[in-house]
Fold each of these.
Amino acid sequence: MTQKNEIGALILRVTLGILFFIHGIVKFQGGIENTLGWFESINIPGFMAYGVALFEIIGGIALIIGFATRLVSVLAVLLMVGAIITAKLPVGLLGNGQMAGYELDLAFLAISVYLAINGSKLFSLNRVLFNQNSNDLKRDA
């Protein structure tokens, strides 16, 4: 990837990471039991609320620091597709006045697909751990 593309990928990676992290924290702060009950009301096993919230927190942190970006992004793609199909599709793109639609999930999905395909090395922990230097960024172009 070129340096300009890497800067864009960094912005997407950190933004998605922060948003996932916040969404996961809110699930616990608002009482995970509420999320658990909502999951069960739409025929998703309640225990999955814990998995989703933990993934959002841990995956969000991983994206922010640039650790396993592609793997986390692939898992985020699966999560977003699942959220759209199971919870948001029936209320439409913009929602129904009582519940948000899937527009935000669709944006998260698009960012996740981009990161799953392209990764993001700039200011990433993976780059430090696996000793990738700045020449790798130019060579990937």
Amino acid sequence: MTFNDFNFEPQLTEGLGYMGFKTATPIQEQAIPVILSNRDLIACAQTGTGKTAAFLLPVINKIIQSKGDYTDTLIIVPTRELAIQIDEAMQGIAYFAPVSSLAIYGGSSGQMFEQERRALSQGASIIIATPGRLISHLNLGYVKMDQLKHLILDEADRMLDMGFTDDLNKIISFLPKKRQTLMFSATMPPKIRKLAKDLLTDPFEINISLSKPAEGAVQGAYVVHHAQKVKLLVHILNENKTDSTLIFSSSKAKVKELDIELRKLGFNAGSIHSDLEQDQRIEILRRFKNKTLPVLVATDVLSRGIDIDSIGMVINYDVPRDAEDYIHRVGRTARASTTGMAITLIGPDDQRKFQRIEKLIGSEINKLQVPESLGPCPAYDPEKNPEKKFKSKDSGHGHRGNKSSSQRKPHRGPKK
């Protein structure tokens, strides 16, 4: 199905041509007609399936037709990276259309706050916002959303995991009750079902590739002692030459340490973490995207908030705490019908977590041979290698590893 089949307005069609969009993805084929029909929607689709365009295109088309000069659409997202990503996509798609947008997120300057205030009081067509920052503006009393037509919750499951439930409810209390509400989530746990029941009216439901890694991702894993990980990582980087490698670690402290270690060893590496100013984060992502920074180390803040189609390799330096997070990490490679490699380093106390990942995706991931130079390694035997039951010094989280994300209270991270 091509985008011409949707009969979009000429200004939008021209923007799609400019962006090189030709064939719709499955989520776009199913979601766009529903949104154009003004029906509420709950869509479950993994990262990299084209869901951003699935909601932006029909909303932009309707804004062009309405010719309104008010805030028509509010998109709420969990992280500043995702807000920026959607705003950048918006600017390209709507380049020839009379539609304005602004990303609103924490950590920016006072000058940016004033720009946000003007947009919220005077009416940018589309506002993309993180919950905490938007509430800061709402509390000051000048936000005008009385004519809002569309509310979109993107990465809804991640927002609930980050503890934004109360913030979402507060934001929604400021919005018109008569509106079209669209919810996009990578997973569909009971808490998302409940949220959908509370917010949506007779929603149409779409499920696309639930809990499966991208088909083009070649997956593998090494079983090692934690002390062997750095040497193994160096071996992997040297053996698999690619112009873009994204390394996920479990905590900000580990990300910083790994970044320093890799640069000491001669790798052109950088890192993304919450201690960086927003301008620094944007510059590092820009360098990684244009391939002048081939190695990037990050926490899970980037597992859903980076839009780069050609990441050659993803390395899980630490096994993710939740099995679903593995899907999002691996989803950073093999996007948009490309191929890529995803490698995980499994420590002795991570084996049961990794076993849950294999159960979730419905297949066993190939265990690769560790180089002999690294010395003896532990056997992969999840039943004999329990997870640690004590608080991790690195993570700052006190949950027990044998609880699923649905069994423990969500960790409220810093408001974005």
Amino acid sequence: MAKRKKSKSKAAAILIAALLAAVIIAAILIFVFKPELFHKYLGIGGHSWGEWESSAASCLEDGEKTRLCSVCGEKQSEVIPAVGSHTGEFVVTVPPTCGKAGVKARHCTVCGADETQTIPATGQHQFGDDGKCSICGQTAFEGNAEGAAQSGFSMHIIDLGRYAGDSIYIKAGSNDILIDAGSRQNSAPLIDEYLSKYVTDGKLEYVIATHADQDHIAAFVGSGSGANRTGILYKYKVGTFIQFDYVKSGKQEQTLYNNYLAAVEHARQDGASVFTASQCYDLKGGAQRQYWLNEEHTLSMNILYNYYYYHQSKDNENEHSVVTLFTHETSEGKKHYLFTGDLEGDGESRMVDYYSDPNNSKSEYDVLPDVDFYKAGHHGSKTSSSLKLLNVIKPEYVAISCCAGAPEYTVIPDNVFPTRTAMENILKFTQNVYVTGIATDVPALDEEGNFGDKEWGYTPYNGNIVFYFNSTGQAEGKPEGYLRLYCDNSFLPITQSDWYKKYRQTA
């Protein structure tokens, strides 16, 4: 019995040895005649590389060359270094002036790319007795109250006082236009008093509410009740009312917003046509993307595209802002004036991208051009007036509606309106920057370099700011076709203020 078991074990051992020998012999034969199978499945042996395929390097971007192993499929990559900086000489295409940046461009002889760079403005104008700048030769644009009152087209940035807020009145021939009514409900009498000097028939042909924040809609509501309401929508008849499409969820100022809706409904019941910005842009319900403001069709109000007419921003009310461009054909060519409400960086970026895409349907007046005037977004916040937008619009004159230096929203000096970031961005393009008010009695800085508290006083700086078009030349005896400036306080840009020199100016 034991002998039989031993015989079976020996047979099994011989069988196993035979199988191992067969495997070894097979492996040797495969290695000799099919070595790629070892490489593919066991990683043994060298790669069998194919030809290199390349994406060429440009002047500023690296290229890449790649090849594949024909056996295992492994990819090998190598960087092709960029050639270097673009070649070719820069040529000045738009000369800089004292007040506005210029542009220089070059064409690369290596990769064919076109490159443009901004040429900083040369500095402040130096106007002589002849009314011309001794540096750049520009005619002085400072106007006067009489010229502003007689102008056929004028834009008024109303000084609202201690708090940041927007209220912009535009006179366009027989049309009276109001963009926003901030900054508080008790601001309504101030705005009413200003409007009453120009609106002689008690009617605003167009009213735009850019977005639902208090500092843009509160004075539409005003104070009081019944027949004693002071709100602008109760004091004036309205022809066409254009408003934002969305409010952010969880709105803090819900009572004010409900009162605003009631004021808009009052205007509707009183004969106003009420549209949203998206209805205007999409030409729905009788709304228009473009409103002509004179019979000659040389002056238009255009509702521009904003991504956030169609998408709700849950965290940022400002992005819902209605964006308006006025286009003006004058004897000196087309002029453009841009109002973006409180639109911030994301909305600005999407708007620039939209107007840069040739596949989007846009009319001659539905564009993002160089602008003669820009009402700076969100009171000069660091999240607005982005370089992406400014590089496209290249403003010549800028107005900021705020109390400069007031710690209304923050105690960090660099972030109070107008912020260091916004000013640095804007000053790359123009020195002509004007601000309605300036803070006084601002608390001293603490040990951390912040304002100690949020108490402050107020005084006008430029005050009410009026840019107007001298359409006839008769009011001032000056050539027609030039944009003028009238301020009821200082005419000096904010860069000339003590506040700017202390908190914004760098060595």
Amino acid sequence: MQFILDSASWLLILAGGGFILTGAIGVIRMPDFYTRLHAAGMTDTMGASLFLAGMLLQTGLGITSLKLILLWVFILFTSPIATHALINAAFSAKLGMAQIDDRTDGKSGGAKS
């Protein structure tokens, strides 16, 4: 039984790491602030949730599991709110989106063919 619990825990932790790695790649590769923040905002909540679920399976019932659940609830509420606040501030400051021309090689400002 312990092997199944450990396997499920590691699977959740690795999946959380995969989500966070995907978000980090998205932050690097996306063309503008809005899409970068979307990549970060979507994946950090899911990645942290999977990490915490994996740790929750390891701790069992107790005060530590209660703390992990409270931390998950805190992240579940604050991460989307912070992402929304950042996007709202950028929009209020009239930060534009990247314009990508379909006739170029995919980079903004490239030579047209």
